Amino acid sequence: MPTPRVLSTQVADATIDLLRDEHGPLMFHQSGGCCDGSSPMCFTKGEFRVGANDVWLGQIHSCDFFMTASQFQYWKHTQLTVDVVKGRGASFSLEIPLGVRFLIRSRLFTEAEEQDMAPVLDGEEYPKN
């Protein structure tokens, strides 16, 4: 099994479950822009339009996770873990009304993990299931 590029904590999964119950299928995008753009943002699936300037890193808790290609260049050597903390972000992400926000924790891949990485697809090529 390839090394996943993105994971989620149990707390993040529980939050995703709450949001999915209310909003239906979800997706994540991390832009790396100003303000909260460097935080992963949760949207109803299809609400955020992805394209060739985005990369698909995989799924967390059955949700597609995308990042802008330029931001991915900074993060490509790290495994990202989506977590949740109390507090309000300043974004349009769906979890904000719950009084929590998603954030990224990261660690560098080991050399062994880098030899067997999960594929990255541009936003127009990702598996749209």
Determine the structural class based on helices, strands and strand pairing: alpha/beta
Named at the architecture level, the CATH assignment is Sandwich
Query: Remind me, CATH topology?
Result: Hypothetical Protein Aq_1857, Chain: A
User: What summary fits the major beta sheet?
Assistant: 5 strands, mixed
Rounded Rg: 14 Å
Shape: globular
Terminal CA distance: 20 Å
Residue windows where pLDDT falls under 50 for at least 5 positions: none
**Structural domain tally:** 1
- Please trace the helix and strand order, writing H or E for each element: EHEEEEHEEHE
Strand content: 25-35%
**Mean pLDDT over the residues:** 90
- The number of E-state strands comes to 8
The first-level CATH class is given as Mainly Beta
Strand ordering within the main sheet: 3-2-5-4-8
Q: Percentage of helical residues?
A: 10-25%
H/I helix tally: 3
Protein name: DUF779 domain-containing protein
Organism: Hymenobacter ginsengisoli
Pfam family, one: DUF779
Explain what the structure shows.
This protein is an alpha/beta fold. The chain has a single domain, classed as Sandwich (Hypothetical Protein Aq_1857, Chain: A), CATH 2.60.300. Strand 4 and strand 5 form a beta hairpin. The protein is globular. It starts with 5 loop residues before the first strand and ends in a 7-residue tail after the last strand. The mean pLDDT is 90. It comes from Hymenobacter ginsengisoli. This is DUF779 domain-containing protein.
